[in-house]
Amino acid sequence: MINFLVSKRFTRAARSFSWATAFCLLWSQAIAAAHTDINAAIQSAIDDPAVPFELDTHCSDKQSRRALTVFRGTTAIWNGQTQILLGADDRRALLELLLASGFSEFDARYGEAKKADKQEAPLRVSCRVHLTISGLTKSSLQEFMGEASPGLLDLAHALLDRVEPLSESGTTAVSLEDGLNKLADGVLLPEMLELRLLDLPDDAATAGVILRVSGGDISRQQYRPGKLVGDVVEDTIDECSMRNVVAALREAEVWNLPRNLKHAGTAELDVSVLGHRHNTQARTSYARVDGDLQSRFEQLLSRLETLETICP
Q1: Per-residue pLDDT tens over the stretch 61-109
Q2: Does 25 have pLDDT greater than 50?
Q3: 53: which strand partners?
Q4: If 216 and its partner were Cys, which of 54, 63, 186, 191 is the partner (CB 3.0–4.6 Å)?
């Protein structure tokens, strides 16, 4: 009887071990495949300049912060304030840095655990590298405190160092008005505009709208407080929509609109171009202001919310 029980327990343990081993093996194979896929996608983008990618990199410490955002592999924003047009050599250099560093094998996060007393003091620096390419994403973050990853820090600084000199000849805006004018003239590209509009009617049974323009993309979604209605419709912003959005913002002189306006329902409009931002919030309960300002705001909302009919 004892031998039977021992044998039964051993069999169960062996099965558990077998399942655990199989799971670990499958997990390892999945991770290895993901690394291979990311590397293949990066290599494909190196070989073919037409392959787009998005790259977000930043490093900050107590003294400074450097940030780089690359859109479609061709346009970049440096420190949120300067537009940079990447040449073929710049684009290739960024991709080669990602590939040579072994970025695909980096952990998602470093520095979560505090360093032991006998170890060196933790670096007071935070860095992040995030890549989207060919439908794949890879991100690695260095926490502000804790043990550092030399590989991630070296890669982040190398990416930033490669692009920073280009910012000296980049394009900036001195104000939101200037930025919108440069967008209208084609001096700044659509990726430089950030816009978010939320408009909810007083009637809770009627759906409102959320409109976003970000990174050269436009998205629309119907919305009720606490409940999304319908799917998000997102696409690259077309020339017609971009032209009409910028024209509506300029004609309303959005940079001069009050921070608070009266509106039937709840509306919030946030617009920024290369670090210059304006936000207007409108509520039923807010006091009415000068009629021209109210009219400009309402006309602006109407134009933004009817883009689909203007640019089908």
Answers
A1: 888 899 999 999 999 999 999 999 999 999 999 999 999 999 999 999 9
A2: no
A3: 133
A4: 191
Chain centre to alpha carbon of residue 267? 24
What SS3 state is found at 24?
Answer: helix
Q: Distance (Å, rounded) from C-alpha 58 to C-alpha 140? A: 11
In the chain, residues under CATH classification 3.30.1560.10 are 176-310
Tokens encoding 206 = 């009627």
30, 57, 76, 108 from 100: Cα distances, Å: 21, 17, 22, 18
What's the Cα-to-Cα distance from 109 to each of 24, 133, 141, 156, 293, rounded to whole Å?
20, 20, 5, 14, 48
| pTM of the predicted model as reported, rounded to 2 decimal places | 0.83
Reply yes or no on domain 176-310 having CATH 3.30.1560.10: yes
Topology annotation, domain 38-169: Mago nashi protein (3.30.1560)
State how far the Cα of 305 lies from the Cα of 218, in Å rounded to an integer.
Answer: 12
